[in-house]
């Protein structure tokens, strides 16, 4: 077996890597060796039994630190122990005690890692879920693929194999099958009780240790790395087969056992060594494909950086990984490097020239990068082993300007300068857009990243991206960043006018950077960049449309493919979200109108796509995803309502929607602090109640506002309550839709009175003194406040509040 392992191409490849997975078979082999020594140690030397048993548990626990695939290893161990108890019944109690000791020591050894799993929810299962199969059919395909890796088609990934090379060639496959037969035949022998437990372990390990790869269909399957737990036990089978052949041949030739075994080993080495050496050195190690897969371009780029004079340059390195570990290990000035993750971003520093380095692994967008270069930029290309460029280097002092100039201040951290539309966006494709911004200051958080959302004028989102290209922890004041963003477009998106809503977002706080107006006031969370979307070059397949209710209703030259009803219950005034899926079977089609009703009450009437894309303009074969969000009438009675759509005279049932009742009040209450202040002829603040007029730092100020709707509103206004300190700063605030965010203004009826309560927490560091309590309403998307007559800030001061020490 040792000779098979030593000459195995699979083992040779993995043993040359510094991956933690390489230690998994070592820990497994040590566990089994110590376990067997402990179980079968001389009973007259109990110290040896205990020592080997402790070592077996220790090595088993250490195995847990090696690689995720080792989590399957306890199962063949458990089956082996069970078979041992069944075959060694006279030693049942002693063996059971040893097994419990092994388990206890293994758990103690693994205790720090178990504690980490317990204190970091998801750390134990996250990776497994990322690569898990999506159904039983994928499980079966994974099992079949892994079964075939031994003789037919192996790992396709060059890093761990010559692509698709099976683990065993024809001679090895024959010996493995023969070894399986010999092992199973040996289990029937009564000469030793050790045969069955050994066979159980070897066979169960063979079957179970392929599962980490078979069940990882979300990535490469089969995988030599994920099945590393088969090493070294898989080579027992061909070794048994070779031993049997040598014994038979030796018996026939009359050779002694040492001689025949020695001859067999020499023949094995003479055959296997040249084969593995030629595969490893001749085909695998020298291949250009492996050079790039093993980050050879980054290795050479690190060598270039170590020799370059960077004193007057700021290096920006493109990489598929943020802070790539290869450069972390090899680059001496690693701390100076700034990372362009994905290779779709370029940056110009405030003072020095930029040195951009793009390895082949992050050069997919190199054509766009080179389009940003000025004429005087210095360009260098460094070839790889196949003569093609391994990496590109550019020395840059300026950038091309954006196609569309504009200006927007994001929280005094970034100043948007403009954008360029790259190519023609088409339905089902992507919006390729480059955005220019200048770093004003480093924000408090280092995880701000850009977001770009493709929306139509009715608020529907048709695609979005949050790329991790150049996070804010790297930003330096004065840098100019140009980021190429790719926004996938939902298939079937109707042609027409759209908006790319661009901003910056912090995943850590789940909050965006605010857009500020010229006075530094809040002006929303994004900037709108107008674009036009063209029709798809080819219609998308129906399977890509995610139709919940499939239909096939011909309507003249059109066909209704199905619909999605995303709203099953709502309150009067809330939107009903409905999507119709169309296809034009011929062109031109007669103009067709859509009428959507609930119990006969019309909710929408007009042409598809909100009347902007009449069916007479649709081309033959074109697929249109037609989204609607009509509000339910505010006076709609509660109950279950039947929805129908009338499409060019054809009526289609759409299901039902349950309309919930709203307890409305139109009576004017008794208010201790009446005001009657109008906000933009939309809402009147009738007055307020205040629980206390003195508050201490760390306490909450309870406030109740009384609103009256002057008319029905389409907009959802946000209420702000600010506690303004004597120096003009905000000492406490609460911003939300009315009634703790549960009763937006778009649901209110004209004349309705709404009771709206707030608790404003006063921070512990609040300065004692008289503070102003201000109230107002604004649109969250734009920051625009409802006007208050006579108030420049469009806010109402209710009264002063004394912040006192207690």
Care to describe what's here?
By secondary structure, this protein is α+β, with helices and mostly antiparallel strands. A six-stranded antiparallel sheet has the order 3-12-9-8-7-15, with no helix packed on it. A hairpin with a 5-residue loop joins strand 10 (449-455) and strand 11. Helix 3 (23-39) runs antiparallel to helix 4 and helix 4 packs parallel to helix 6 (92-119). The longest helix is centred in the N-terminal third of the chain and has 28 residues, at 92-119. The protein is elongated and about 115 Å long. The model has no long low-confidence stretch (mean pLDDT 91).
Stretches where pLDDT is under 50 for at least 5 consecutive residues are none
Helix/strand/pairing category: alpha+beta
Helix content: 25-40%
- Overall, the morphology is elongated
Strand percentage lies at: 25-35%
Radius of gyration: 36 Å
- Calculate the mean pLDDT score and round it: 91
Q: How far is the N terminus from the C terminus?
A: 80 Å
Number of helices: 17
* Largest sheet: number of strands, sense, barrel closure: 6 strands, antiparallel
Extended strand count: 34
Q: Describe the strand arrangement of the main beta sheet, using strand numbers.
A: 3-12-9-8-7-15
């Amino acid at each position: 077996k040792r000779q098979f392992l030593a000459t195995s191409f699979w083992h040779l490849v993995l043993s040359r890597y510094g991956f933690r997975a390489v230690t998994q078979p070592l820990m497994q082999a040590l566990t089994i060796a110590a376990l067997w020594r402990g179980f079968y140690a001389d009973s007259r030397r109990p110290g040896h039994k205990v020592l080997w048993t402790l070592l077996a548990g220790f090595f088993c626990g250490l195995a847990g630190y090696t690689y995720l695939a080792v989590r399957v290893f306890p199962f063949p161990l458990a089956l082996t122990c069970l078979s041992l108890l069944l075959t060694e019944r006279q030693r049942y109690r002693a063996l059971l005690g040893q097994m419990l000791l092994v388990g206890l020591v293994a758990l103690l050894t693994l205790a720090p890692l178990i504690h980490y799993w317990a204190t970091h929810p998801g750390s134990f299962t996250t990776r497994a879920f990322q690569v898990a199969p999506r159904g039983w059919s994928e499980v079966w395909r994974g099992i079949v693929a892994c079964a075939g890796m031994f003789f037919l088609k192996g790992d396709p990934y060059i890093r761990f194999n010559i692509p698709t090379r099976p683990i065993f060639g024809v001679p090895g496959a024959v010996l493995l099958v023969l070894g399986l037969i010999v092992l199973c035949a040996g289990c029937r022998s009564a000469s030793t009780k050790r045969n069955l437990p050994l066979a159980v372990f070897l066979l169960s390990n063979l079957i179970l240790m392929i599962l980490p790869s078979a069940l990882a269909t979300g990535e490469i399957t089969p995988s030599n790395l994920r099945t590393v737990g088969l090493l070294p036990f898989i080579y027992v089978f061909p070794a048994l087969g070779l031993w049997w052949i040598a014994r038979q041949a030796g018996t026939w030739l009359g050779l002694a056992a040492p001689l025949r075994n020695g001859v067999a080993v020499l023949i094995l080495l003479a055959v296997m060594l040249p084969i593995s050496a030629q595969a490893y050195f001749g085909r695998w190690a020298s291949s250009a494909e492996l050079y790039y897969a093993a980050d050879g371009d980054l290795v050479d780029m690190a060598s270039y950086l170590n020799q370059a004079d960077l004193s007057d340059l700021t290096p920006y390195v493109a990489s598929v990984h943020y802070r790539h570990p290869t450069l972390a290990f090899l680059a001496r000035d690693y701390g100076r490097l700034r990372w362009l993750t994905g290779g779709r971003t370029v940056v110009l520093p405030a003072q020095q020239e930029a040195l951009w380095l793009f390895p082949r692994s992050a050069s997919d967008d190199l054509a766009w990068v080179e389009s940003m270069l000025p004429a005087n930029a210095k360009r260098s290309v460094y070839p790889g082993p196949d003569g093609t460029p391994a990496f590109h280097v550019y020395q840059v002092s300026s950038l091309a300007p954006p196609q569309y100039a504009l200006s927007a201040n994001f929280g005094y951290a970034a100043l948007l300068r403009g954008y360029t539309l790259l190519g023609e966006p088409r339905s089902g494709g992507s919006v390729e857009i480059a955005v220019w911004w200048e770093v004003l200051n480093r924000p408090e958080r280092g995880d701000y990243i850009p977001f770009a959302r493709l929306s139509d004028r009715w608020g529907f989102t048709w695609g979005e991206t949050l790329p991790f290209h150049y996070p804010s922890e790297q930003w330096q004041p004065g840098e100019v960043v140009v980021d190429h963003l790719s926004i996938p477009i939902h298939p079937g998106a109707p042609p027409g006018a759209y908006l790319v809503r661009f901003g910056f977002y912090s995943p850590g706080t789940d909050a965006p950077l605010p857009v500020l107006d010229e006075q530094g006031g809040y002006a929303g969370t994004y900037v709108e960049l107008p674009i036009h979307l063209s029709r798809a070059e080819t219609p998308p397949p129906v399977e890509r449309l995610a139709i919940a209710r499939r239909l096939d209703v011909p309507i003249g030259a059109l066909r209704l493919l199905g619909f999605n009803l995303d709203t099953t219950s709502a309150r009067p005034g809330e939107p009903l979200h409905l999507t119709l899926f169309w296809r034009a079977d011929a062109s031109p089609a007669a103009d067709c109108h859509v009428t959507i009703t609930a119990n006969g009450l019309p909710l929408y009437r007009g042409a598809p796509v909100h009347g902007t894309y009449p069916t007479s303009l649709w081309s033959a074969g074109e697929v249109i995803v037609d989204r609607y969000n009509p509000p339910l009438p505010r006076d709609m009675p509660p109950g279950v309502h039947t929805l129908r759509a009338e499409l060019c005279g054809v009526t289609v049932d759409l299901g039902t929607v349950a309309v919930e009742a709203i307890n409305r009040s139109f009576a004017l209450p008794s208010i201790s602090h009446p005001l009657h202040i109008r906000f933009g002829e939309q809402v009147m603040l009738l007055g307020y109640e205040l629980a206390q007029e003195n508050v201490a730092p760390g306490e909450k100020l309870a406030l109740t506002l009384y609103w009256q709707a002057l008319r029905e509103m389409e907009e959802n206004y946000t209420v702000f309550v600010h506690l303004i300190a004597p120096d003009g700063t905000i000492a406490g605030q609460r911003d939300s839709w009315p009634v703790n965010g549960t009763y937006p203004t778009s649901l209110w009826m004209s004349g309705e009175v709404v009771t709206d309560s707030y608790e404003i927490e006063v921070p512990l560091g609040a300065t004692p003194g008289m503070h102003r309590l201000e109230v107002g309403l604004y649109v969250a998307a734009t920051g625009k406040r409802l006007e208050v007559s006579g108030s420049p800030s469009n806010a109402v001061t209710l009264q002063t509040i004394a912040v006192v020490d207690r």
